[in-house]
Amino acid sequence: MPVVKASLADMDTLAFLQFFERAYDYPLPEEQLIPTMQNMRLIVPHQGQMTPTIAGILCFGRAPQRFLPAVLVNAARIAGNQLANEPLDVKVIDGVLFDMLEDTMRFLKIHLPTPHRIVGLEPERRPAVPEEALRELLVNGLVHRDYTIPAPIRVLLFDNRLEIHTPGRLPNTVTIESILLGASHVLRNPTLYILFYRAGLVTHLGSGVLRAKQAVEKAGKTLTLAQTNGEFIATIHWNSLQAG
Predict the structure, then answer these.
(1) For 155, which of 31, 75, 166, 218 could close a Cys bridge (C-beta 3.0–4.6 Å)?
(2) Distance between the two ends of the chain, CA-based, in angstroms?
């Protein structure tokens, strides 16, 4: 889908070239830049000129929120266990999707405790919530959210749980049960999925949430999934933040 008010000047072609070389292990010749971006569905012909697509702007745009202002992550550390409580810290995270992922991970690392366990003579850091589980769930939200809904992803960290609210209900045929079994692999946003796959952030197996669930349970926490009329919600539960 083209972003009709955007042009090629709004794309960070250097970032794309660097991504391409990392993903495919060879540099892209300059004369192949435009046809390659078109083949990857990052740009499309529109009204006589090449125009960035939503996926192109989201992954390689110079200022994605200029065109898609609701595509954000609103992250908050909230005292206690109620949403109405005063937040201790709030961050609005923007940029391209890859940066949003890393900035949200940094926010969570700041606020999630990392208890130490003595192993031999050396302390071993054991995050309260496994980093791989956090990353899998955030990637799932960024890649599979419904981008037709003008709403941010919400990441809410309470004393006893972490909630990740993703705009949009599950696609047809996908159920919470099938996700938890790793038995469903319907792509709402296939272009984004392929880009994240090339970046090494997803597999082609549809097992990300299942891996997150296993990592969370191994750490002594629980993962639940739910959906409302407009959101898909992944929640990691524990007894208290202070207890890790």
Answers:
(1) 75
(2) 44
Give the integer Cα–Cα distance in Å for 27 and 18: 8
- Kindly list the domain boundaries of the chain, sorted by start residue: 8-66, 73-237
**What topology is assigned to 73-237 in CATH?**
Heat Shock Protein 90 (3.30.565)
Contacts of 221 (CB under 8 A, 6+ apart): 129, 236, 237, 238
State what percent of residues in the chain have pLDDT above 70: 91
pLDDT digits (tens, 9 = 90+) for 108-160: 999 997 765 555 555 556 677 899 999 999 999 999 999 999 999 999 999 99
The pair phi, psi for residue 217, each rounded to 5°, is: -65, -35
pTM assigned to the model: 0.90
What's the pLDDT band for 229 if we cut at 50, 70, 90? confident
